[in-house]
Amino acid sequence: ALLEPAATPVRFPEGFVWGAATAAYQIEGAAHDDGRGPSIWDTFCRTPGKVHAGHTGDVACDHYHRYPDDVALMAELGLHAYRFSVAWPRIQPDGSGPVNPRGLDFYDRLVDELRGRDIDPIITLYHWDLPQTLEDRGGWTNRETAERFADYAAAVYGRLGDRVTTWTTLNEPWCSAYLGYGNGVHAPGRQDPAATFAAVHHLLLAHGLGAAALRAAGATTVGITLNPAAVFPADPESPTDAQAVRLVDGLHNRIFFDPLLRGQYPADVLEHVARFTDLGYLRAGDEKLIGAPIDLLGVNYYAPTYVAARPGAAGGGGAYPGTEGIEFLPPVGPLTDMGWMIEPGGLTALLERISNDYPGVPMIVTENGAAFDDKFHRDAPGTDGRVHDADRVSYLDGHLRAAHEAIARGVDLRGYLVWSLLDNFEWAEGYRKRFGIIYVDYLTQRRVPKDSARWYQEVIHRNGL
Ligand code: GBH
Questions:
Q1: Can you tell me which residues form the catalytic site (predicted)?
Q2: In sequence order, what are the residues at sequence separation of 6 or more whose Cβ sits closer than 8 angstroms to the Cβ of residue 4?
C-alpha cells in the first residue's frame, strides 16, 4: 500500500461517515451566472490589499460547470458524504425577497448527481458569502440579517429538503464575527469590537431562527459547525496563564457553546463584552431561541492555540477584543504552510472537552486538513505527473488517530470530513495555499488526485488506518 506509516492499525466504528468538504465561494466560480448577486467576498476581493495578489472567486475551480466530473471523482474515492455550502446570493441576489429559481436549480442538479452516486449531501447554509445588499444595511451587526437568513434557509429547504437529510446553519461564526468585524482580515473587513460582538449575537440568532425555520419545514437533522479553539497555557503550572486560557476560551468557545448548548451566555464573558457595547442587541427570548436542541455539532480543527499572561503583551488584537496582557505564542515545531502548528493531540483534547462540558450532542469533524503553498512547487504534479504530498498524508493520518483516540475515550464522534476535496480559493490567501486532496491546475482546470486522495480512498475502504 501507498505511504503506509509505521504505526498500529486502527478501525473506526461501523457506520462512521467518511467524506470531504468545500464551500461555495471557494470552488464554484460562475460569479455572474444565472442571476447570482454580489456577496461581501466579491467586494472584499476587489478592495486593494485585502486578498493575496487580488485573487477573486470569479472562476475558482469552475465547479459550477464541472460538478459532474467532481462528483465522479468523489465516487471514485469512495466518499460516503460531501459537505458543501449554498451561496445565499445565488438564491436571493439581494439577500431578501423572491428566490431566484436558477440559483436553486444548480444545487438541485448537484444533489441529484450526489445521490445518484450514493454520496450523502451535507449542506452548510452559510459559509461567509453574505449578499452585499445586506452588508450595506449593517450586515451581521443588524438583527434583520438574522431574520432574512431564516427566510433564505426555508427557501433552500423547500427545494432540497426532500433529498437532503443533514442541514447545518453556519460555518464558523467565530470567523465571520472576529475576522470579519474584528481584525478585518476577512470580509467585510471591519475593525470594531462593538460590531464584533453584535455580529456574534446576530449570527447565533440566525442559527436559532434558521434552525427553527428548517424544523418547521420538516427537517430532522439540524446542526451548526464551529471552529472551537484548543487553547493551552504556555506554562501548565502558572495560575495567570490559566486565567489567560479562561478568557480566550470564553471569547472563542464558551461565547458560542454556552448559548447554543446551555441556553445562556456565560456571565464572565458577558461582563467582558460589556466593556465594548451596552448589549442593547440582546433581547429577551433570544437565548431560548439560540439554545433550542440541535442534532449534530460540526467541529472544524486545524491547529492549537497557546497563550500566556504577559504584562504589556499586545493581546489578540481585533480577533480577541480586550485581551491586552495576553501573549498568543508564535507557533513552534512542525508547521503547515499556513504557519499553523501540527498538533493532533489538540483535536483529541478538544473533542473530549466538548463532550464533557456539553454532553449529549453527536459530533462530526466537518473540516480538518493542511495546506502547502506553491512556492517550491511541492504540492503540484512532479515529472511523473503525480502529486507526492507525503506531508498531507502524515497530517491526516495523525489527526485521524487523534479522532480515533477521542472515540476510544468515549466521545460520540460520527464522522470525519477532510478539508478540502479540491485545491481552492483560500480566502485572504487567495490561490497560493492548497488544501485539496485533489490538485487543481487553475490554468486548465485539470484535476489530479494527489497521493493523499489515493491514501484516503484506502482509509475509507478499510474504515481505518
Ligand atoms: C476554515 O477556517 C474555513 O471554514 C475554510 O473555509 C477554510 O478554507 C479552511 O478553514 C482553511 O483555512 O494561527 O495557528 O492559531 C479556518 C479558520 C483556522 C481560523 C485556524 C484560525 C488559527 C490557527 N481558522 N486559525 S493559528
A1: 172, 367
A2: none
